[in-house]
Specification:
The protein is mainly beta. The protein is 7% helix and 35% strand. It has one helix at 3-16; strands at 21-23, 31-36, 45-50, 53-56, 62-63, 82-85, 88-91, 99-103, 109-111, 128-132, 138-141, 146-150, 158-162, 173-181, 190-191.
Amino acid sequence: MRPITIILLVLPFLFSLFPLVTATIPAAGPFSLLAVRSASPLHYRPIAAAGRAFYIGRPTSAYCPSPPVSAEACPVGNETILIQNGDSLAMSVSVPGGQRAYIGPSGALSYTGPHSGSIPAGSLQTGFGTRYGTPLPALEFRAQGFLACPVVGAEGVYQVFANVPVAERQGCLPFVALEVPAAATVGAWEYT
């Protein structure tokens, strides 16, 4: 056996000896999320904002009021981009007042509507953190990954929930939400 082959075989074991670090240090800049769970329908699929919740298997839902905003000033809106500030999370948008992300009373990863800071009672706005490891950092909530729960009547679509004991859910898969650096600084005028 060649020495390089032995190194390649031993390398994953060596990486497993070093624990990953979880911290509330924000990502280096705006990022999108990518679901990772080997041998599952979730693996390497983007996480998108739509209907004030986050989904795997559903496109990003965004809007830009053109006019009065010029078409050139409207962000593309086809990718969900987030920013982290300490242990809180926000949508990377242009709309005045912004849009915040939070964990709703059901445990769903959610976000506020445009021009509104209204968050349902019992929601959690803090507790987001980043676990640093390879190949990319991962978003967590209270040092836990997330759950993807199938949406009834929508094959291949999963809603994203925090991995917290709030309600009994069926058919959910735990997954890692990788933070992929975004090419753009703003993802949309507003997410709908």
